Amino acid sequence: MTSIQRLSAVGAALVIGASALTACSSPADQSLPANPSVIILSGDGMGPQQRTAIQYYMYGLDERQPMDALPYSGFLDTIPGDPEYAVTDSAAGATAWAIGQRVPNGTTGLGPDGESVPTLMDIARERGMATGLVNDHDVTNATLAAFGSPVPDRDLKVDIATGYLDNGIDVLFGGGEKYWYPEGEPGMIPDEGEDDVSEGDQNLVARAETEGYQYAYDQTTFDALSGPKALALVQDSAKRRSTEIEGYDYNSDPHYVAPEKLVSKALDILGENDNGFFLVIESDDLDSDAHEHDAQNMMLAGESINEMVKVITEYQKDHPEVLLIVTADHETGGMTIENVLDDGEPEPNSDQVADDPVPYWAETPENMPLPGGGVPKRSGPFTIKGTDRQFKVDWTTPEHTGTMVPVTAAGPLAERFSGVHPNTYVFDVVNELWGSN
Ligand SMILES: [Zn+2]
After folding, report:
1. So where's the catalytic machinery, residue-wise (predicted)?
2. DSSP code string of 163-198
3. Residues, beta carbon < 5 Å, ion ligand 1
4. Per the domain annotation, does 67 fall within a domain?
5. Residue 331 Cα, ligand 1 centroid: separation in angstroms?
6. pLDDT at 360 over 70
7. Lowest mean pLDDT segment, chosen from 30-34, 242-246, 401-405, 428-432
8. Would residue 229 count as lying in a domain?
């Protein structure tokens, strides 16, 4: 589909929306704000047990963690529209939110047959709203691409970056600068290994600047961003995980910008648009940690999500027209919370010889049961904050699982998220809020 065909498809969707809006005249609809903004915050892989572990370890038993303190909560199922698989990947999970249809795994913002359909971000842009994408990892990752740059294959990272510029997404903050620079140009963050080598064939940063984007690559240039268009390619939060392995200290890395600062700046810039904004945020770090069976860093990523939620709920105090939705595309790792001891004896972890992943820093798996039944490295024990009690975690798979995921929400129509719904419901509620369904 060409961009013109794409726009007419959006137009058609909006015409349908306009007639639906005319037909609606209940008091509930009249109480909705005139120009509502929407924020979707996804903790990739953040299932019920992850949320619980983050609560125990970071916040204890007396204070409810910010993402769970939102006034409305429910569950979303996560099954993809796949002929073979019962468990979704991030691409299909985010696409369900973005276009309101279940699609096969790997599909990134396109319809079930690979056809181009309007995403929530297209609809927002048609409404004259500002648009933004923020990630603590590559901004070109599948979840955000499903909204801002639909592609047939989630691995087409350079195409995804190009599509963001083609689609004029106003705010693009995250890591993965190698996809924006041509081969042979290292960019502004020093390369440290093969993983960092530039991959594209054109300089997309230069193109962005030509098209009016401000560009940031470290804390100082980031602080100077004022919009309305801004591109920040900074150090991945994932690098934090190498702290104890390589002695890396993100606090002293000038290219590291904390995720909550990315969100705060995005709100400052996007909030300038009188028509409202649509912002999608992902913590990809949490999923990567769970794939590697790294509970400690998964919970640290969860703390970052809570810090982002705090920034947003503070913003909502002056901007009650903003709907915040906090959820996940799926669970990762089949994680469970267990006692450290069973009748005084160590509680063994499940036999993971076949399933345990080899983390990037090691040559062998590290979560197999230890001799004598000790808690494996990176599974705990962890202390429940403010108590003497400990828990450990166990894992059933290095992959995703098919459990329902919690959703919490605050703002206009947040009450719609009470109960159990399909993941496509996110699309439905946002369209209802915008009067475009
Ligand atoms: Zn994953």
Report:
1. 90
2. HHHHTT-SEEEEE-GGGTSBTT---SSPP-SGGGS-
3. 287
4. yes
5. 8
6. no
7. 242-246
8. yes
Q: What residues does 346 pair with on adjacent strands? A: 341
Backbone torsions φ then ψ of 255, nearest 5 degrees: -90, 0
pLDDT more than 70, % of the chain:
83
CA 263 to chain CA mean position, Å: 12
Catalytic residue from among 90, 149, 198, 288: 90
- DSSP letters, 258-317, are -HHHHHHHHHHHHTT-TT-EEEEEEE-HHHHHHHTT-HHHHHHHHHHHHHHHHHHHHHHH
> Is 400 annotated as ligand-binding?
yes
The annotation status of 343 as a binding-site residue, yes or no, is no
pLDDT at 237: 74
In angstroms, the Cα distances linking 428 to 40, 119, 160, 417, 423 are 13, 12, 25, 11, 10
Residue 46 lies in a domain: yes
φ, ψ for residue 63, nearest 5 deg: -110, 125
pLDDT band at residue 181 under the 50/70/90 scheme? very high
pLDDT number for residue 407: 98
- Give the residue-averaged pLDDT of 372-400: 85
Q: In this structure, what CATH number is given to the domain that contains residue 135?
A: 3.40.720.10
Q: Is residue 353 part of a domain?
A: no
Give strand ranges (E) for 300-404.
322-327, 331-332, 336-339, 341-342, 345-346, 382-383, 390-394, 400-401
